[in-house]
Amino acid sequence: MLPAALLVSRYVLPQVFRVVAQVPEVLQVGALAWCFSVAGLAGWMGLSREMGALVAGVAISTFPTPST
Question: H or E stretch including 52?
Answer without folding.
Answer: helix 49-60
